[in-house]
Amino acid sequence: MRFEVSAVDARQQVVALELDAASRDQAAEAARGRGLAVLAVRARGLALPRVARRAAALPVALLAVELLALLEAGLNLVEALQVLAEKQPAGERQAVLAALLEAIRRGEPFSQALAHFPQHFPPLFVATLKASERTGSVREALARYIAYQGELDRVRKKVAAAAIYPAILLAVGALVLGFLLFYVVPRFAGVYEGLDTELPFFSALLLALGRGVREHAAALGAGAAGLALGATLLAREPRFRAWLSARLWRLPVLGERMKLYQLARLYRTTGMLLRAGIPALRALGMVEALLAAHLRAPLAQARRLIGEGRPMSAALGAAGLATPVAARMMVVGERSGEMGEMLERIAAFHDEELARFVEWFMRAFEPLLMAVLGVAIGLVVVLMYMPVFELAGSLP
Q1: The predicted structure's pLDDT at residue 113
Q2: CA distances in angstroms from 150 to 138, 141, 156, 160, 355, listed in the order given
Q3: 129 shares its domain with 254
Q4: What is the pLDDT of residue 305?
Q5: 138 shares its domain with 168
């Protein structure tokens, strides 16, 4: 029988290989005989194809919180990592922590050991710890990264919390409309087919739709499933997401807020890296992957201007990456020598501005959405019962 084995090799890289063995245990033993640390063993047989999934990444923010707590409790780095490895269930996460321990015991710096696992530890986390190794302040670097992630999560949670009620309302309204159009209307159409009276135009149109749904239910169901599948595949396509994002950015109000969100992320991440001791050019290069695709060219322009000796405030302003408030505050940060802290303050200011906009937008959008759904559902019901009202009015 053939098995697929995921393991960690001597270079601390996660590898996948296929082995022939009589059982899972023998496949794992054969992999260990090659000097590999086995993470998982899966049987390969006749099965439906599955979409490839990435290995479950370590929760870096939670790991940083736990590691900082252990270091502040008086443990050294090796002891803290050992405690974290022991509390993890057997699997890939435990193997990754064990590999980190082995790398540190071989004399590698902590940041270099982390860099062996880019699928688990983002470059920002690695760079922050690498910068801290020059001063020996790992705890400060961890605290800085935890605060950074906390601010990002706070903004995301505000947006998600504001969107929950409209999403539920929209889903319920869509279900009610679907029930009326695909279940109730076709049955009303069957009732009215035997009537000799002429139906009102819009009622006849609605009931014709009901008859069409009843007669072509299978085709409509297959079409809806195809559209859902196509939308899912398109949503996973980077080029389509970039195209859609570019179109949304052109909208007058929404596009401005989307840009402001991206700029706040740029300021916060750059500020965190500058406070960690990373030079400005390198910090901006690391932030590039976090930005929308069409903002990367302006960021490259800003980096080129900084490399030519221009101040960061002037370079970002010339590239269109500085709001009026940010430009003024960055000038103050350059004069005081606290550019990293100033960028984080700018990000906090814009995050609050975005939070106020989201709150205002949702307060205006929720009643509007309720009104639209109520009118749509009420219109369908009235059109269904209008022939009944007319028949009742024609009775002596």
Answers
A1: 86
A2: 18, 14, 10, 15, 15
A3: no
A4: 92
A5: no
207 and 92 both lie in a single domain: no
Query: Does residue 248 lie within any of the structural domains?
Result: yes
303 & 360 share domain: yes
Q: Give the residue numbers spanning the domain of 123.
A: 60-149
Q: Are 255 and 248 in contact, with CB atoms under 8 Å apart?
A: yes
Q: What is the pLDDT of residue 46?
A: 41
Q: State the pLDDT at residue 39.
A: 62
Quote the CA–CA distance of 95 and 302 in Å, as a whole number.
41
Mean pLDDT by 10 residues, the chain (396 residues): 69 66 74 71 52 55 86 85 80 81 84 84 81 74 83 78 83 85 75 66 73 76 84 78 75 81 87 84 82 84 90 90 89 88 89 84 84 86 72 55
Q: How far apart are CA 364 and CA 335, in angstroms?
A: 42
* Domain edge (last residue) among 89, 119, 149: 149
- For 331-366, letters b (16+ CB in 10 Å) and e give bebeeeebbbebbbbbbbbbbeebeebbeeebeeee
Nearest Cα residue to 45 out of 24, 68, 15: 24
* Residue whose entry in the numeric block shows the structure tokens 């950074």: 148
First to last CA, the chain: 83
Token representation of residue 62: 């939670």
Sheet holding 37-44, edge to edge: 14-20, 2-8, 37-44
The pLDDT assigned to 151 comes to 79
142 & 160 share domain: no
- Counting the structural domains of the chain, the total is 3
Residue with tokens 């994002």: 245
Strands 14-20 and 2-8: antiparallel
Residues 6+ apart with CB under 8 A from 191: none
C-alpha distances out from residue 334 to 48, 280, 325, 338, Å: 59, 12, 14, 7
Residues 143 and 167 in one domain: no
Helix (H) / strand (E) element for 18: namely: strand 14-20
